[in-house]
Structures are given as C-alpha cells and as structure tokens.
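#struct-queue
[09:14] JT: dropping the first one here, sequence first, then the structure tokens:
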Amino acid sequence: MNDAVHAEAARVDVVRGELVIDGRRLSYLDFGGTGRPLLALHGHLSEGAVWTGLAAELGPDWRVIAPDQRGQGESERAADYSREGYLADIEALLDHLGLERAVLLGHSLGAINAYQFAARHPERVEAIVNVEGPLVLGLEGPHPLAFLLGLPYDAPSRDGLVAELGPAAPYFADRLRENPDGSWRLPFHPKDMYDSEELVHGDHWADWTATGCPALLVRGTEGVIPAGQAAEAVSRRPGAAAVELVGDHLLPISAAGELAATVREFLVKL
C-alpha cells in the first residue's frame, strides 16, 4: 500500500472483521457508517485495503465493506479458485453482514465477480461498478500472471524474501506478512493466483447482460478493456454507462482520485 493510501486510512474509522466459511477464514474491512452498503472487491495480487481512499471519499453516504478475497491479504487460502467459490464467498459475506442488497464495485477479478454475482443473485445487487473487468478475457495470448510461477512464496526472513523477489519486490514489499514462526510470506500464494487467473478466463457477455440494474464500466486508456468492447458493453446492456480515465489497468492506484470522483457521480444518481 502506498503512502497516499496510508494517509487516507487515518481519515476512516475502519474495523477488520472475519467470518469462517467451510473452516476457512475470510477477512474483510468495514469502513463503517450508516450509509448505504457498497461491497468493494479488489483484483488479483491486491487486498481490501486498496479501497481505503475510495471509502474516505464516499463516506458518510456509503458504508464501504472491502473483503480480502480468498487466498489474499488476511484471508486464508482456499481449496479452489473457481468462479463458484468466489461468488459463494460474496453471498456468505452479505449474509454475515445482514445485508439483503448492496452496490457491488470491483476491479479486474473483483469486477468480474461483481457482475457474475449479479447475474446469479439479481435480487441482492442494487447496482454494479465495473472497473477494468473485461467481458471477454484470456481466450488467446500468454497467461498474464505467468511470471508469478517464478516467485517464492515465503522465506525465513523479510529481508531474505525481498531479495528473492528480485524485480517484483517493490510491488509487494510493503504488504508482506509475518508468520507465527517468524518467517515471512507473500500476501497470496503465486500458484493460487495463477490458477485463479486461468479460471476467470472466458466469454462473460451473458453474465454482463443478464441483469438490468444500473451499471457503470470504467476503463483506463492504457487498460485491458478495448474502447470497442466498452462501447459494446453499453449498447448491449440498457441503463449502462461507460467512462474512460487516463491510466493503466490499475486504476484504483494509478487514478485513485479520478476513479473516486467518477464512482461518486454515478452513485449519487441511485
């Protein structure tokens, strides 16, 4: 997490909670307040804290809840990373929080989870915000997370793990976790995330168009959603809108302020 996110954290009264699903801990951040509920779902190689700045910008009108999705952050590794598994986690979290309905906002993996959950449970989703979540993903070309298979998962010391991570160290060094035995690990297992990415690939148009609740698609000018796909996403789903922001795929970090303003403008109309 960068310094800007840490600074924003001081402005938000956040509580970390957890629930147990089939013997596995799912951890989440609840940014509190009495506003309307918004579930914020991060992408691969991230965690719920990435939404700290967004929660600060949306409060007090919105109560942002941001889980560490299975196998990432403070949530324990799962037996599988199937589509069904991710969506079951969302349902379990909503039930645990006593929320009948919520806005679902997601980035990348989280965005696909959001609109697929809406397709299966439309009665529980008030609106969708899709940030850089493609409608067609990985049908051709190299595996985008193949580099992970060359990374270590843990090491006896933090310095040792940072050294073994090599060029990848700057991206993960501030989020490493210390184990009870004093060793250190990544906040995800590389093979888990490789498998998760592979299992999210596919043609998801049917899920995107399955519901009619308000929807916003946000793409980066240098992101993974082509402009033509964004235009088609709006034309094929009544009530949807698309916004383009200057930035890469990692808009929650590279264009955090602009993304927060865009999301707020969309939410105020609900």
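[09:21] JT: and here's the second one, same format:
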Amino acid sequence: MAARGGKSSSGTAKAAASIPQLSWDGTRAAPVVLVSGTETVLADRAMRALRDLLKVEDPSLEVSDILASDYAPGELLTLASPSLFAEPRLIRVDAVEKCTDAFLSETLAYLSDPAEGAVVVLRHAGGVRGKKLLDAIRSGLGGGVEVVCAELKKDSDKYEFARAEFARAQKRIAPGALRAITTAFVDDLAELAAACQQLISDASEEITEATVDKYYGGRVEANAFRVADAAIAGRHGEALVTLRHALASGADPVPIVAAFASKIRTMAKLSGARGASGQLARQFGLAPWQVERAQRDLRGWDEAGLGRCIETLAATDAAIKGGGRDPVFSLERLVRVVSARGAV
C-alpha cells in the first residue's frame, strides 16, 4: 500500500518530513531506516524485505538485534563498528517507542556520524516516546528514509492489500473470490495475508470462489458478514441459521454486530447518492465494488427502514456489551428487524 499523507501513528505531520516516505513494499537501504506505524504485519514484511535485499547484495551480511527498551549503553556503537573483515552490518532495533534514555541520547549522537557499511533499522510502533529521535531522522539527520506502516482500517484498504498480494505473485483471482477471501479475514490482516499466501502457493490455476470455498468454506460460511448479507437481502431463515451456526462454532457476538454496522453504515452513506461507482467510491472513501454492493443491497429499502435498523443496531451493540441479559436474543432480534428491512 502506498504511504499516505496526513499524520503518522506517532502524530507527526508527514508533510514536515524532508526524507523519503516509502511504502512497506518499496523499502530500500539507507544509513538509517525508520519503520513507523502500528501495522505490525507490514512492518515485519518491510524489515524482512530489507534484510533479504542486503543479503542478496552481500551474503556476508552481519545481522544484529537490539531491544531499545532494554538497551545497554554503548551497544549500538559496538555493533555498528566495522569488524576485521569489514562485512556489511544490519542492526535491527525494536521497541523504539519504549526506548531507554541511554538509547535515545546515543542514537541521536549516532545520527551525526553514521557508521560506514551499516544499516540501522529503527522500529517505532507509535506513541510520543522517542519523538525527538523521530523528528531528527525526519529532518534529514543521518541520511535516512522512513517506511510508513500505518494501520489498514478500511475494508477497501484490506481488499487492495489482498489484490496486491495476488498481483505480485502473478496469480489470477476472480473478483468474487477476492471479495470472499477479504471478507472472511477482514478482521485480522495477518490471517488475511497468510490465507492469500496459501492460495498463491497451493492453487495451480485461476483462483475462483470455489477455490476459496474449498480452503476456507467453514470460515466464510460462519463469517459475520454472511449473516449480515443474508439478513440485508431479506433471507431471514438463512440469516438465522447462519447466525446460530456461527455462534455454535465459537463466534463472538461483537464482530457479528460490527459486520451489520459496517454494511448498514455504508448503505446509509449511499442512500440517495447519485453518480458512477468510481466517483462515489472516491467521495466516500470506499472501493468501487463496495459502492456497487451497497447499491444492490439498498434495493427494496427506504430511509425509514434504515433508520429503524440503525436504532436496533445501537440497542443490540449495547446489549451484547453488558447492557442486556441475553446477547443471543438481541442478535436474533437484529436479524429479524434487518431481514424485514426495518418494517417491524
């Protein structure tokens, strides 16, 4: 995913940075590489990609790890100093957001004169600790680059992440299959990435919805979005059966309500909106397929029904989070109200 403007997870304005801002899949070497943001999956990939890149350039690469929260004074300078044979060095520093005072002061000093042949990677997962160091790196001190690994919050971002996984592997996947795999693992980027890689590794031909169903049918069928899809389409019996199967399989009520909220919120945004799917997608921060899906879902609905469903959603959310005695009853009532398009 391309790095975006605005603010990073640490709250520092990217517009103020004078060093290159890279996406996780555009990582490159520099004397100092700041890997910022809360998305651990992307940060891990960026750091792994950098190690692999440096290994290809020189197999004698020395790799060392430092924990900034448990830093021993002098550790960075010792590891960065060239050895007898002057092998290239990669020094990976984790938990910079929890760094000690010694690490902070010594790393700031290091930026003024980085060691030749060394690449220092600083992983900062967010927060205000170490802000002085981040500001110094972003100002250009040390000749660094920043790899921005911000959290992928929108469903459209996760859909694009999955699409890029298959594109990089030059593996064809049908649009319906891509939607299915994204929906099945939308709540966990690590699981989504693993599922994509398994399909890429195991499927010999184009990946279809049948392929996804073969591998992850149980997950998809019991997925919260399947319950919401059936209810929104007016298929009360199917939605109820799917709900009970999901709960019996150990599904938590909270993500089920969240799935309803996500879909109905999108429908409410697009209710009455006019324009091409691409135009509306840009306007509302959605993927075109989400716009088209919401427009299909809205057939047969009216604003009054949407309003009643939103009120029921709020009541159900409160009930399953401790405000009610029977979360299952609340969920079944939600399914009934949504299946009737709010006309109850």
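[09:30] RK: nice, looked through the second one.
[09:31] RK: The chain has three domains: 14-148, 152-221, 224-344.
[09:31] JT: good to know. The longest helix spans residues 303-323.
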